[in-house]
Amino acid sequence: MKKAHLLKMKDLPADAEMIRLAKKEKKVKSSHACYQMPAQYEYGKFIKARVLEGILKVSVYFTEYLRFSGTEPVYNIFIDKEEEDFITYDFLYQKWSSAKIDRLGWPQYATSRKAFCTQETLECIQNYLGKNDNDPYDAVLAYQEELREKQLLRKHKAITDKWKDRMQQVPSLPKDWDRWLYKVGITQHYIFYHYDRKGVKEGYCTWCEKMVPVVSPKHNKNGICRCCGHKIQFKSVKKAYTVTTEESAYLIQRCNEGVVVREFRARIVYPQEYYKTPFRSYIEQRRIIYDNKLNGSEFYFGTYKRRDKDIWIEGKLKAKELFGYIYEEPFYEGKIYGKTIPSLSKKELRYTGLREMLKEIPYISPKHYFESLKKMPYLEQIIKAGLIQFAYELMENPKKLQLEIKRDLGKSLGIDRFRMNRFREHKGGILYLEWLRNEKKQEKMIPDPVIQWFVAYQISPDEISFI
Predict the structure, then answer these.
(1) Is the model's pLDDT at 285 over the cut of 80?
(2) pTM > 0.85: yes or no
């Protein structure tokens, strides 16, 4: 609708009958005992409407203006049903507004929806808008709300369709995904046993899914299954009640844009008397799509704007804490599905060092790893040099050590080749490197067992520099 053309449309001044009825209006105070409402007229507003050039023009008048013989409207509302649009001209402030009729400025005596209009005006509004409301205000508002709902749905659809298109590139789950998730992805397993005074000789291993021999089990004590060799925790059936374990696991797959990291939360519930038939479930709650420069787009599974349910939404996953505080759901460390890594390491993840990292530390957060790699590109060089523990500590404490990257890694770390070999051999971390630097600076050899002792007790060279 062209605003200049709308202003030139025929005016709809208040007629003598409207002015006469307005002068008869009297304010009535509310008799509610709990609170006092301002005094109101029975009809706080008067409405007149006509269809001009295919557009419904609705003029709104305030009662008190009409009581003083005013004939000009306060608002002119224009509705174009064909274009599915509406706009309002405010004569008080001489400006246009896209607000619905209930969001326009109303005096306290006109807060009620009840409005007066002639039968001709009512039929004009009803026929044009296709509404059967007996009140012209309600008819206009109902149409505007329906129109806004349609506009909002179109706006949301334009956004969600882009997300759905990006999700089309995500591959399906591997065929052995369920088995891997519950056997490997979940690392906490148990041996359930029934207490016996004569001594317990066997228990049920949740990884083996069968009865296995045990020796002197104790409730909540950690051990090793004699059949599968996995770490387990002993659980007395009578003391354990219902046992629940929940962990994060990750799947990295190739996609059109690069790689997608998929985060799963898996849960196993072992009821007290039905520990042999536990309840297993998992949800995929987040996805991160990375390009070849490790720029990530994060998505979470949920409801968008309380309308579109069970879709992938671009943004951060929020979680509610105690007392209503809202925070971002953290990315927990977890196992990473290994069968896709060799193929990705030849192309998309070739310069990340992820494959080498997973050989030593398979329990990490891929998001944290890629973010650290983007901030510290030299991590790849450190990892491929075999300094896995050092790289892991740098990821956890990136500000603890500043490196000046050179072609020779030993020179970048401030040590020579001899000390570099010792650093790699003993799988040293940041503190171990500090002692090697201190050793080189003083030009005195410190035995490796001594450095290891210092590292074990977290003693840095600065703490004993007074000696």
Answers:
(1) yes
(2) no
